[in-house]
TrEMBL record:
<dbReference type="Pfam" id="PF03060">
    <property type="entry name" value="NMO"/>
</dbReference>
<keyword id="KW-0560">Oxidoreductase</keyword>
<dbReference type="GO" id="GO:0018580">
    <property type="term" value="F:nitronate monooxygenase activity"/>
</dbReference>
<keyword id="KW-0285">Flavoprotein</keyword>
<keyword id="KW-0288">FMN</keyword>
<dbReference type="InterPro" id="IPR013785">
    <property type="entry name" value="Aldolase_TIM"/>
</dbReference>
<dbReference type="InterPro" id="IPR004136">
    <property type="entry name" value="NMO"/>
</dbReference>
<protein>
    <submittedName>
        <fullName>Unannotated protein</fullName>
    </submittedName>
</protein>
Amino acid sequence: MSDVTPHPALRTRFCELVGVKYPVVQTGMGWVAGARLVTATAHAGGLGILASATMTLDELKEQIAAVRSKTDAPFGVNLRTDVADIEARIAVMVDANVKVASFAQAPRADLVSGCKEAGLVVMPTVGARRHAEKVAELGVDAVIAQGAEGGGHTGQIPTSLLTPDVVAGVGKDVCVISAGGWSSGAGLVAALALGADGIAMGTRFLLTTDSRVPDDVKAQYLATPVTGTVVSTRVDGAPQRVVRTDLVNKLEKSSWLANLPRSLRSAHQFRSETGASLWSLLKEGRAMKEGSELSWPQVVMAANAPVMTKAGLVDGRTDVGVLPTGQVAGVITELPSVEELMGRIIGEANATLDRLSL
C-alpha cells in the first residue's frame, strides 16, 4: 500500500463506507479491469472494481478468487442489471465477501434491497441529477457521477456541472464519487471542493503498467491529443467517447443500415465467447429498448460494443476495434505503476491542500 499519509481532508466518508485508505476508485472497464489491475489498486489503497459484463459467471468466480488470493482489502464488481444471471453473480460476490456492487445501469429496487441485506455497498453510475435522485430513493449507498469528459458511454453534462448538481440532488446520506476528466491530486481536491466524496478514474488506470492493455495500444492512447476523441453513436447506437481512429471516422460517415451486418456478426461472436444464449441476448435487447430511447436498429447495433472494444483493447486490432477513452488521455504522457500513480495523486492532493492553507 502507498505509504503517503493523506491530509485529513482526504479521509472522506467514502473511505469509511467502503474501508479504503484513499478516496480513489478504479472503474470497472470491460476487458481491462481484471484481477491484476483490481489487486494493484487494492494494494495501493484505492477501491478497484472488476468488470464482470464481459465475463461469464465462471470467469467472474475465477477473477474474484484471484483477487482474494492476493489481498483481503475491499474491492468491488461492476454489474449489468439486464443480464439473466444477475442474482447468481450477486450470490458469488456475497460468498466471496466482495465489498461493493457497482452497477452500470440503474438497479431494480429488489436488487438494491437484496444487496444491502447481504451487506454489499451499492454504487450505480449516473449521468444526470434525475437518475441520481431515482436511485437515491431506492436506498443506494453511493453513486458515481460521470460527466461528459468520461470515456465509454457518457452523457452531455460536464463533470464540473454534474458533480455539484448530483450532490444537491441526493442529499447527505449518499456518497458521490465524481468521474470524468480526473487524473491528478489537484483534480481530487477540485472534486472534493465540488462536494464529492472522492474521484473515479478509468483511462488513468488503463494507462498504467498494471493494465492488461497491450503496450502498442497504450502508446496510441498516449499519442492522442485532448482533441483526439469523439462521442459517437455509430459504434453501438448510444453516445460513446472513443479515440478518433480511421475506423471511427468511417463509422461516423456510414448509416446504421450499412453497419447492420457488422452488428449481427458481433452479436454472434459475443454469444460464442461469453456463452450467452440467443434468448438472453434477445432479453437484454428488449431491456435496453424499454429502459432507453434507443430504436430497434440501435439495439441491434449495441452488439458491436463488447466485440469491437475487445478487438481494440485486448487484441490490439485498432483497424477493426475501438478504443473507449476519456478526454483526459490527452494530458497523460507516461505509464506509472498503480502504486506510483496513487502515491503521486495523494502527494499532489496534500500539496494542493497545503497551498490553499486548508
